[in-house]
């Protein structure tokens, strides 16, 4: 499933990020493939606010659709 | 491409007889506070050529301390990064400020600086917040793994600054331990490890991304996560109040009312308190009565030529209208605006507004980030035009610049408009916002359809919310206002001289008569409003200032306010747009703005008047 489909308070693991630039940006923010993140807020059809440790990141809907995630078991 | 030390020092006018220490860190880590504590009151500000970025530097003992713009890494993705990149690459000694609460993010830059073999002292700032968040950091272990000196501070409370000074005095700057296996990656590409080859391999001078760069970043990220896991312990379950506040600001149900409340406070502060009460005193009493009486008395004694007298102290005189408007009206408004903006910027609220408006902005081909140049546009459209460089694609820049030129009134103009509208009444304010908002959305949608290409998606870091530091806010307000007024001064003088000349030679009347069919016929406004339009071409705030003195009915004032808001971008933003996108684009924006302004104004006039 893709990141735009997750709901508030859900925890997921990032599987892959399609765009190369987004991957490099994410690496600097502290997120890479395999990172565990939590959705702390979501605006319908809008951005998703992710949290990893104490870091919060807003990801637009379009980009979220290109990020594969896996639900944490 | 290589820069030597003196090149950057020359560009920033930094004296080159002292050794430079660069202060480097992520955005919002409290770098400026540390800078202030180290350098004291005397700070120099230089604009980095070709950017909107100002660099502060000051002196500490035998060193020049340069405060670099906050970045997440050394690369060239935006203007701030380019400036920091140039300073870092030409400096050997670096104080790297990191936010203790966001170590996993911040250590990426730290490790990058270490990999570049810079001599580093790491400042672990905001240690007081670490306790509040139930985080434990093993500083000794961090020191050992990084291989450099680590000093814990809480700069805003003044803690640990003495230790930092001591470390600088003892010259504890050290090269640290390079990311394991980094040399191997370079060797596998047939490169020998050095700062230069690494900079090249990481594509530092390019805004695009290479495969090797990604490989190195992934390696470094993995290593940094390892360091983080070894040195930091925390309890994820305990959420601090700030995180809840952050969610309240982003959730549309609560966030939108808070955003409107913020804008209303800004309107009340700028439009009512400053533009009316304060300006009434500064412009009408201090400048309009005392100063004008004084200067007229002097000039009349020494100047007998009527033409000259008109140019000097006439209605549009260089020593009458100019100082009255510049000092009595613009000065208080510009300072008030920058004070408000500095508070907003320092609090960490702006990126949350970006997240909140993202969905709406997607409809006009932008992402939420575009709110930043637009909010800055309320300060100065020209500067905001330059700031559109932070946007991810050419298409987004073209749309944003157009909307800036068309719909965004800039600082003093905004203050004057707020002041004039608050006199008309609440419903006029609502109507004004709805009309300008409607045009913004409609034109945005049209541009989204006609401008080719693809827009990028929102991807931003939400910094920790904090209470703005008064010293920081005041300093920022001072430098921003000063920069703005210094830049505006010559253009104002020139505009006044042009208008004074037109007035003294009666050419003004001729132009007014020529524009009469449009101004008095179609827009149903008094003839003198033509002056406002002429001034608006040169500077919008100057044009708006003209509105204050022209007697109109309520309806006419409303039509005039809407029309002048939408009217053409000022000369400097026109020049900036031309520089960024070529003459064809800026002429297109200019003509479209004039046409849209007059059409909208005309329609309103025919409904209302």
Automatic annotation (TrEMBL), chain A:
Keywords: Iron. The keyword Endoplasmic reticulum does not apply. SMART domains: FeoA. This is Ferrous iron transport protein A. The keyword Hydrolase does not apply. It holds the Pfam family FeoA. Residues 1-71 form the Ferrous iron transporter FeoA-like domain. GO terms for molecular function: transition metal ion binding.
TrEMBL record, chain B:
Keywords: Cell membrane, GTP-binding, Ion transport, Iron, Iron transport, Magnesium, Membrane, Metal-binding, Nucleotide-binding, Transmembrane, Transmembrane helix, Transport. GO terms for cellular component: plasma membrane. The chain crosses the membrane at residues 248-270, 320-344, 364-386, 398-421, 427-447, 484-502, 557-575, 587-608. GO terms for molecular function: ferrous iron transmembrane transporter activity; GTP binding; metal ion binding. It is a multi-pass membrane protein. Mg(2+) binds at residues 36, 39-40. Belongs to the TRAFAC class TrmE-Era-EngA-EngB-Septin-like GTPase superfamily. FeoB GTPase (TC 9.A.8) family. Probable transporter of a GTP-driven Fe(2+) uptake system. This is Ferrous iron transport protein B. It comes from Caldicellulosiruptor owensensis.
């Amino acid at each position: 499933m893709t990141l735009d489909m997750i709901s508030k308070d859900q925890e997921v693991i990032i599987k892959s990020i399609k765009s190369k630039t987004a991957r490099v940006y994410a690496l600097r923010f502290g997120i890479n493939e395999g990172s565990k993140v939590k959705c702390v807020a979501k605006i319908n059809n809008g951005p998703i606010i992710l949290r990893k440790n104490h870091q919060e990141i807003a990801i637009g809907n379009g980009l979220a659709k290109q990020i594969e995630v896996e639900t944490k078991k | 491409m290589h820069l030597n030390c003196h090149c950057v020092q020359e560009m920033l006018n930094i004296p080159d007889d002292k050794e430079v220490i660069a202060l480097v860190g992520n955005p919002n880590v409290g770098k400026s506070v540390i800078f202030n504590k180290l350098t004291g009151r005397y700070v120099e500000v230089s604009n980095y050529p070709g950017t909107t970025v100002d660099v502060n530097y000051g002196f500490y003992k035998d060193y020049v301390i340069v405060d670099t713009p906050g970045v997440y890494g050394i690369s060239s993705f935006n203007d701030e990064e380019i400036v920091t990149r140039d300073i870092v690459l030409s400096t050997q000694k670096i104080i790297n400020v990191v936010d203790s609460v966001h170590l996993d993010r911040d250590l990426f830059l730290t490790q990058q600086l270490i990999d570049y073999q810079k001599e580093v002292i790491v400042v672990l700032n905001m240690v007081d917040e670490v306790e509040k968040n139930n985080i434990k950091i093993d500083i000794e272990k961090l020191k050992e793994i990084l291989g450099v000196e680590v000093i814990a501070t809480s700069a805003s409370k003044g803690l640990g600054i003495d230790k930092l000074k001591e470390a600088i005095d003892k010259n504890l700057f050290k090269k640290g331990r390079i990311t394991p296996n980094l040399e191997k990656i370079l060797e596998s590409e047939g490169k020998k490890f050095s700062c230069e080859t690494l900079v090249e391999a990481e594509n530092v001078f390019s805004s695009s991304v290479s495969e090797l760069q990604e490989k190195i970043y992934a390696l470094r990220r993995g290593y940094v996560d390892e360091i983080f896991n070894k040195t930091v312990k925390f309890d994820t379950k305990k959420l601090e109040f700030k995180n809840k506040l952050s969610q309240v600001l982003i959730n549309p149900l609560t966030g939108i009312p808070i955003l409107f409340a913020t804008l209303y406070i800004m309107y009340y502060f700028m439009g009512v308190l400053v533009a009316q009460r304060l300006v009434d005193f500064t412009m009408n009493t201090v400048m309009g009565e005392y100063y004008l009486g004084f200067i007229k008395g002097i000039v009349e004694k020494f100047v007998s030529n009527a033409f000259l007298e008109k140019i000097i102290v006439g209605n549009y005189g260089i020593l009458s209208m100019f100082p009255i408007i510049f000092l009595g009206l613009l000065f208080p408004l510009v300072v008030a605006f920058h004070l408000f903006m500095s508070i907003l910027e320092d609090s960490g609220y702006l990126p949350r507004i970006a997240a909140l408006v993202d969905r709406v902005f997607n409809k006009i081909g932008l992402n939420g980030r575009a709110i930043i140049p637009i909010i800055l546009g309320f300060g100065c459209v020209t500067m905001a035009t330059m700031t559109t460089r932070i946007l991810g694609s050419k298409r987004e820049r073209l749309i944003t610049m157009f909307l800036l030129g068309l719909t965004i009134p800039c600082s003093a103009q905004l203050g004057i408009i707020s002041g004039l509208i608050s006199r008309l009444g609440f419903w006029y304010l609502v109507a004004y916002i709805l009309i300008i908002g409607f045009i913004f959305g409609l034109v945005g949608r049209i541009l989204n359809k006609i401008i080719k290409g693809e827009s990028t998606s929102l991807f931003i870091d939400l910094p920790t919310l904090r209470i703005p530091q008064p010293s920081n806010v005041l300093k920022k307000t001072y430098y921003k206002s000063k920069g703005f007024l210094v830049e505006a001064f010559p253009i104002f003088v020139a505009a006044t001289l042009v208008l004074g000349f037109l007035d003294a030679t009666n050419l003004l009347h001729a132009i007014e008569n020529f524009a009469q069919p449009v101004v008095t016929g179609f827009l149903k406004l008094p003839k003198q409003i033509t002056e406002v339009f002429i001034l608006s071409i040169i500077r919008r705030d100057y044009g708006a200032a003209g509105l204050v003195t022209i007697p109109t009915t309520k309806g006419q004032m409303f039509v005039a306010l809407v029309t002048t808001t939408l009217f053409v971008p000022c000369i400097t933003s026109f020049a900036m747009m031309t520089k960024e996108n070529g003459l064809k684009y800026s002429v297109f924006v200019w003509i479209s703005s004039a046409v849209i302004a007059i059409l909208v104004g005309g329609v309103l006039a025919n409904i209302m008047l």
